[in-house]
Design brief:
Length: about 230
């Protein structure tokens, strides 16, 4: 399957978001059976959720870029509240239509991701001196924009952009943010492993772990598919 891979902000469907559906569809095709109605329901729900993201994610990324370039408190506040609004709305979306994800594990990890984001995004609202944290983190949503644009327009440039930003932002930049957040909080006199420290650094660690989990999930699932392909040839 295609590698179509998620601080603060939207959560793109991770690399295996469509894997279960793809494998099931191939199995049905090879056996000559009709497509499973549940599979069809999940595919339709997933397409609707892609449209949902196409509407909401690009404006968040545009606001993130403005916040980074202009660095005003007004923009930082607007971005942080916008992120919270989107994430809460997406949690409700997942509760109303859990079929937008291919299985319960995917649904559960994404909802958990969003709950962590809510806790993390609340920090700069409580500590305005750290309002810039939101923009530092939401720049990762450039990756999500590449994903939704790739799905919508089927252009190779967005697929390449998606792959590059997945590894560059989610697997490199996000771990760097753990170190950066730690340094800022230490200079501000925040006690190690205090509530504030866990809210910021702990949340970022959890988000990095989720990205690593989704990446490993894809890589592990890809091996048997490559073996099956080699066997077929």
């Amino acid at each position: 399957p295609k590698l179509e891979l998620v601080l603060v902000g939207a959560c793109p469907r991770p690399p295996l978001a469509e894997l279960a559906g793809v494998r099931a569809a191939r199995a049905h095709s090879m056996s000559g059976q009709a497509e499973d109605p549940l599979l069809g329901r999940r595919k339709a729900a997933g397409a609707r959720h892609d449209t949902f993201n196409l509407v909401f994610i690009p404006p968040l990324v545009a606001l993130t870029i403005l916040s980074l370039l202009l660095a005003t408190d007004t923009l930082h506040y607007l971005l942080t509240w916008s992120v919270l609004g989107y994430v809460v709305l997406d949690i409700l979306y997942h509760l109303v239509d859990p079929y937008c994800q291919p299985d319960f594990l995917r649904w559960a990890t994404i909802v958990f991701h969003h709950l962590v984001v809510v806790w993390l995004a609340a920090h700069p609202l409580q500590q305005p001196q750290n309002l810039s944290f939101t923009a530092w983190a939401t720049i990762v949503e450039v990756n999500t924009v590449c994903q939704v644009f790739n799905r919508a327009f089927k252009l190779k440039i967005f697929r390449i952009g998606f792959l590059v930003t997945w590894f560059g932002l989610r697997l490199i930049w996000y771990p760097v943010l753990i170190y950066s957040f730690h340094g800022v909080l230490m200079r501000q006199g925040v006690e190690l492993f205090s509530h504030t420290y866990c809210q910021v650094v702990g949340s970022q660690v959890l988000l990095v772990m989720l990205n690593a989990f989704w990446t490993a999930e894809f890589l592990l699932a890809k091996k048997p598919q490559e073996a099956a392909k080699d066997k077929a040839t």
